[in-house]
Design goal:
- The protein is an alpha+beta fold and about 240 residues long.
- The chain has helices spanning about 1-15, 25-30, 65-75, 80-85, 95-110, 120-140, 145-165, 175-185, 185-195, 200-215, 225-235; strands at about 20-25, 35-45, 50-55, 60-65, 90-95.
- Strands 3-4-2-1-5 form a 5-stranded mixed sheet, with helices on both faces.
- The chain is globular and about 60 Å long.
- The N and C termini lie far apart (about 60 Å).
Length: about 240
């Protein structure tokens, strides 16, 4: 099937662009059941394009750009691109450039993500705290669907914040959130997925503890006092 995919992509784009590499990533490589095919194309043209099309009832999501652009994105240590090129499988690689970027992404992954700046830390901390407040307020209204949507947002924010301050890579793909929560916060995972029903108060208390731990880790940033005070107040309730 991969040869068929390569032919479909090459035939569709080769008349307009000089193709150097075609790579496949995402759910097609990791899951037996998949809804689409994620493709990256290296071309000599100085372009950056994202587009989708359907062929033989299968959706293709294509990102097309030149080698230099993709190399730049990896060297900037942007998590999305590190994870893509770390796992990408070349279907066509004339000059071995995709293979080279894959090796680069793996080296960068081993080196670890960039250090979070004070400004970014405070912004991420505030965003996480705000998502926690929204969930706490929503629980009073007993809107089940909204509660779960806000919980998902809170989990993504707390996991991202924890990973950044501890120099751990965070995969921004939604499908990767649960495995990362299980690995990073095993106690929180048990509260969420091993009981017949969620005890929301336990989740909020555990999130408060995580936020407190983060302020200790990032004491060098001297986070704003009201954030610390807010955690302590809520922790005593």
């Amino acid at each position: 099937m991969k040869n068929e995919i390569k032919s479909i992509i090459f035939n569709k784009y080769s008349q307009k662009y000089k193709i150097e590499s075609i790579g496949i990533f995402g759910s097609f490589n990791t899951k037996s059941n998949f809804n689409d095919v994620d493709i990256i194309i290296f071309t000599k043209a100085k372009v950056y394009r994202k587009e989708s099309f359907v062929k033989n009832s299968l959706k293709y999501d294509v990102i097309l750009s030149n080698f230099e652009n993709f190399q730049f994105l990896c060297k900037k240590k942007i998590p999305e691109w590190i994870f893509i090129f770390k796992e990408i499988e070349p279907l066509l690689d004339i000059n071995k450039r995709m293979e080279g970027i894959s090796a680069l992404a793996n080296d960068i992954y081993t080196d670890g993500p960039i250090n979070v700046s004070q400004r970014t830390y405070v912004e991420m901390f505030e965003k996480t705290l705000n998502s926690k407040k929204k969930l706490a307020s929503s629980l009073i209204q007993e809107n089940i669907i909204q509660n779960y949507l806000l919980l998902n947002d809170l989990l993504a924010n707390i996991a991202r914040l924890w990973c950044y301050v501890n120099k751990i890579w965070f995969n921004t793909q939604t499908i990767q959130l649960l495995p990362q929560i299980r690995e990073i916060f095993p106690t929180l995972y048990l509260c969420l997925y091993t009981k017949e029903s969620i005890v929301w108060e336990d989740i909020l208390k555990y999130v408060e503890k995580i936020l407190g731990d983060i302020t200790v880790i990032c004491s060098k940033y001297e986070p704003r006092s009201e954030l610390i005070t807010e955690i302590k107040i809520r922790s005593t309730r």
